[in-house]
Vancomycin resistance protein YoaR (Nonomuraea muscovyensis), 676 residues
Amino acid sequence: MGNPKPIQSPTDPFASVPLPSSGTTSRRPRIEGLPPGVSRDIFGGPEGQQPSRPAPASTAAPGDGPSGGALPPVAPPAQPWPVSQGKPEPSASRAPAFGAPGGSARPPAFVDPEPPRRRRVLPGLAVLLVVLALFAYLVPAVMMSGSVLRGTRVAGIDIGGLTVTQAADKLRAELVTKINKPVTVEIAGRKETIQADEAGLELDVVATIGEARSGFPGPLDVWQGLTGTTELQPKLTIDTSQLVRTVEGLAKGHDKEPREGGVAFDGLRPVVTEPEDGVLLDREDAVRRIGDAFLASRDTAVLTLRPAKAETTPEAVAKAKAEAQRAVSAPITLAIGAKRATLPPATIAAHLSFVTDGKGGLVPRFDAEAALAAVERDLVDESQAPRDATYQIVGGKPELLPARTGRGVDDRRLARDVARVIGKQDSRIVPVKLAVVRPEVATAEVSNLGIKENVAEFTTTFECCQPRAVNIQRMAAQLDGHVVKPGETFSLNDTVGERTRETGYVEAGQIVGGRMVNIIGGGVSQFATTLHNAAYFGGFEEVERTPMDYYAARYPAGRDAALLYPDRDLKWRNDSEYGVLIKTASTGTSVTVRLWSTRRYDKIQAVESERRAPTTFRRTTSSAPGCVPTVGTPGFTIDVTRVFFKDGEEVKRDEKQTTKYRPQAQVICASTNATG
């Protein structure tokens, strides 16, 4: 080990005391064990500041100084370090670093690493506010979730806080009665009441609930639910087809058809009908106005009658009257070779009419076919007359009666010739010609169609001796013997045609659009119902059928058929490979339809559901002209399904048909004080 060198005393007394670093706090450091003779005052000055460090006395020799002692010279007074007043220090690129040559003699200012108190408090407050806000939103949001937003009202009915199902049930129970207010319609000063069910008004509960906010609410929803209310309007729908029928019923009671001028005969006396203008209810406008009134919850609707002008003129009527007087002044003789037939004035008058020509005038029209029925045998042998192919029931079995081509008077030509000579006074002889007349239904059309057995029949009853019975019997007679070919679609309106007085129909009561009105051919819906049920149990395909608005006990529930020309028809298709013969029979109190073909099924059954959703009928008194009293009947809904059986097993079934009957009001006519 070498000799140790003597310990050298530091020439700088501060070398043994470490200066505070940037990580040191601003508090004055506590310095222990200072060398003898060194006072703490050398560290004086404001807290956090250090005195200037004396320059090292490297060049001073021991003993130099005023006292000539060993102590260093007295330090100059402490100078505080300057503090920056918000101005940035010069960058390193512009000023030398502390301690570097040419640099500043003072150290940089210390940076306080500890933030002020407010900087520590503000973030905490912000976090607390966020937590409170989330808490204030989530708690009520969870409570409101799964239900309709609180404060939601529909037409004044509060559904807030309810589940969707509960809200729907409450609306059905409370809102239906609230919106089912009748609308009073005014037509030319007369007022009538239209009930909501007559207009086909229905509450769309699903759409109404769909407008309300439900599920998990957002912040705005929660605020709305806690502080306000949400008003919703009920969603209503109008069954346009029902409203059209109601308007049609209104029109029947208010229409005044224009009356065309004409000339008819009372015996041999010409009777003049002067032309007269009329008014008709504007159907389309009425449907729109009544529908708008119900949807907007208005109490009244004013409907419009439009003028309808007659085409004929009074001058044309006067001219036709003079021509009619000449027409029955003498008989008309029909001649073919040596054969003669006479049309007496009474026959001429019975089959002569004057109709509008569409230009304001009147022209004669002679029904030669009907007039010949009584006299054609005098001109043509019966054995030569044509005959349509048809079937007749002999011994409970259908037998084919083949068609036959024959000869007959050309009725179209005869009608033109008679109309030309009726105005003449001199020559009243009309030469006629025979023509080959082919049958309208050929044998080939109806033979070999498998018409061999009764496949279905149905009967309905009615009260005796009413005008409607005449119409039912007349329609049955027109349809008797009609054959529906395989694949053909049968239309009752197309086959029978419009019901008119000329075709044998009379005025009778019929429900049209919920109102009992008198129309030509009233009551024929009963025949349509009878025919429909025969086709139903015959297994034929239904194409078009309109159920009746109200239930009548004389008809099977869910299987009735309304008939009105030309709007409501009954159509069914012969979807078999066999022909179908329609045979009808009627009495004073019943009508029966039998269908003859080849049986395809052992049995066809109508499966009915229970009658549900009953609705009570209202009572009303009417003093309107032509009031028809009715017996009130309740409404209900029923389902009917047709099931087909063969060999004792079910082979198919139709889709379920749902019929909703409306309650029919009891109408008491004030003028007669009678009830139906």
Notes: Residues 6 and 461 are 149 Å apart (CA to CA). The domain at 313-446 is CATH 3.10.20 (Ubiquitin-like (UB roll)). The first strand starts at residue 152 and ends at 154.
